Amino acid sequence: HVTEHSFPTRRSSDLKALKKIISKYNVDDEMFIWIQPQGDRPVISCGKLEDDCRSSYKKLSDMIRKKEESAQDIRINDRELFSVYQEDYNLGAFSIMPKELLAKNEKVLNQNLLLITIIMLAVTSISFYFVSKSLSRPLEDMTKTVKRIQAGETHLRMENLKEDEAGELGKSFNNMLDQIEGLIEIGRAHV
User: Fold this and answer.
1) What's the rounded Cα separation, in Å, for the pair 91 and 85?
2) Would you say 165 and 171 are in contact if contact means Cβ atoms under 8 Å apart?
3) Is the alpha carbon torsion for 85, 90, 93, 96 positive or negative?
4) H or E segment at 95?
5) H or E element: which one contains 81?
6) Which residues of the chain have pLDDT under 70?
7) Cα-Cα end-to-end distance for the chain
8) How many CA atoms within 13 Å lie on the side-chain side of 19?
9) Which residues 6+ apart lie within 8 Å of 33 measured at CB?
């Protein structure tokens, strides 16, 4: 549940935007989020506070209003305080969250990171396999052709050559074979 704190100087469009943002980030009933300018009272809050946290919240809010630096040092029973401050707008976003929820979120985040890592490794491995195959296939074909020529099939030539380094090598190989065959023909003609 979102609570707007009454400030005559705040525009309603700004409060609507803040309300939308703060509601988006309040993911649990046990979470309490508020936005407060440094040196002022809270502008908007969302969530519920247990009785044991209410006094800590008021103390924190007063410290922020008074611009005291030690607000981060306050401990709130089994809860954690998070804060982010945006100097350009003189606004701070604060959250009081149960440690269990934090641990649960951390576990989910770690699981998601592990899953993403596994997927990225799989995609990288598969990509590497296909790229290496596309690079090694022309050399494998050339090796097979050379072995067949050694076995006596001297009329064979490299086929299906691409416009890459392996293709250039294949063209040079075919030219060399043509020159050797030409020299053999010349040698036979003189004999």
Assistant:
1) 6
2) no
3) positive
4) strand 91-98
5) strand 79-86
6) 1-12, 69-75
7) 104
8) 12
9) 22, 25, 26, 45, 46, 47, 93, 94, 95, 96
Task: Name the average pLDDT for the chain.
Answer: 82
The tens digit of pLDDT for each residue in 165-187 reads 878 888 888 898 888 888 888 88
Question: pTM value?
Answer: 0.52
Residue found by looking up tokens 């195959």 in the block: 133
Distance, CA of 32 to CA of 22 (rounded, Å): 10
Read out DSSP for 14-52? HHHHHHHHHHHH--STT-EEEEE-TTS--SEEEE---HH
Give the tokens for residue 94: 């604060």
**Phi, psi of 93, rounded to the nearest 5 degrees:** -110, 130
| Cα 123 to chain centroid, rounded | 14
Sequence-ordered list of residues with C-beta below 8 angstroms from that of 181, at least 6 positions apart, any chain: 154
* The two three-digit tokens of residue 118, written as one number: 């596994």
